[in-house]
Structures are given as C-alpha cells and as structure tokens.
Design a protein that fits this description.
Elements lengths: L4 E11 L4 E6 L12 E7 L2 E12 L4 E6 L5 H4 L6 E5 H7 L12 E4 L2 E11 L4 E7 L2 E7 L4 E5 L4 E4 L5 H6 L1
Parallel strand pairs: 7-12
Antiparallel strand pairs: 1-2, 1-6, 2-5, 3-4, 4-5, 7-8, 8-9, 9-10, 11-12
Length: 173
C-alpha cells in the first residue's frame, strides 16, 4: 500500500551558517527529535521526494530547526524555503500532540448519531478547524468550532458534531 502523506508545516526561513531550515509545524508540543528521520517535499503533483534529516532541534512548540543531509550552507537551503513539508500519515499519529488539531486525522466523524466518514485532512483556520472527510464518495468539509463540536473521544477516535442545517445537502446535491 502506498503511504498517505500529510502536510505538517513548511520551511519558513534559513538559520545560521550551516544551512539549517526553520520548520513551522502543526504538531503541537514540538517534534520528537529522536524518531523523525525523513521528511518529504512534493516535487510534482503526487510525487514526493524524501529528504533525510541530519539533525532536528525544537526552537519552541511550533518551530524546529532542521538540518537536511547534504544541505550544509544557506545557499543550498534557499530552494527549500516556502516548501510544504510532508510526513507519512502513520508518523503524524506518533508525532502530533493529543491537543493538536492534526491529531484528529483518521478519527470517525458522527453527526450526532449518524456516521459521516473518516477525517482525511485537517485544515487549521483562524476561527475554526475544517475537517475534510469522505462522505458517501464525496469530499465534505466539516467545520469544527464551538457551535458545531459536541465531543471528541480520543480513545475511540470519534468526533461528534452537530452540523448546520443543510450543510450536507450542499455537497451531495
């Protein structure tokens, strides 16, 4: 089975004279620097190129300094700026903090009692989080905010929401 890759952030700057890159990420409490060995950059649509990590150091909970193998000068790091960074979906599960929205990947979404589908993407916005789910073969975006969210059960990987009237109709009609 081919890996599903998930965007965890992007390279926003270079740092220092050794070609370190600043990775701004959505994982929550920082990166598990021991287990993250490879990141992927999408070179062409659907074609991911692996880059091996020589070193990772957390700057804070949202940024890490990443040294890629073979990138040992700021000039070599510049082509990576503003590039999205992807890792396999199963790694997101181990890297993401429980409270980080990205940790909801793979959870099942229910509209009160009815199962809608599995979370395939988490999109963070300023006022809410959007969950992209596959509902009856169609792509549906479920807003997660204080008026729609009823409950998140981490152990059961279950999210219960109360969708706005007519939201599903927009996608299925």
């Amino acid at each position: 089975m081919m890996d599903q890759y998930i965007v965890i952030g992007k390279f926003i700057a270079t740092f220092g004279i050794k070609g370190d890159l600043v990775l701004q990420h959505h994982l929550g409490d920082g990166i598990d620097t021991e287990s993250l060995k490879t990141v992927f950059i999408e070179e062409k649509s659907g074609k991911f190129m692996p880059y091996f990590i020589a070193a990772v150091k957390n700057k804070n909970t949202e940024e890490a300094l990443v040294q890629l193998e073979g990138v040992d000068a700021p000039e070599k790091a510049k082509p990576f700026l503003r590039k999205q960074v992807w890792i396999p979906e199963q790694e997101v599960k181990t890297q993401a903090a429980k409270h980080a929205p990205i940790s909801l990947l793979g959870f099942m979404v229910y509209d009160e009692k009815k199962m809608l589908g599995k979370v395939v993407e988490v999109i963070e916005q300023p006022m809410q989080v959007l969950l992209r789910i596959d509902y009856e073969g169609k792509e549906v975006f479920v807003p997660l905010n204080e008026s729609t969210l009823i409950k998140i059960e981490h152990k059961k990987e279950k999210i219960t929401v109360q969708l706005p009237e007519g939201l599903l109709d927009i996608y299925i009609n």
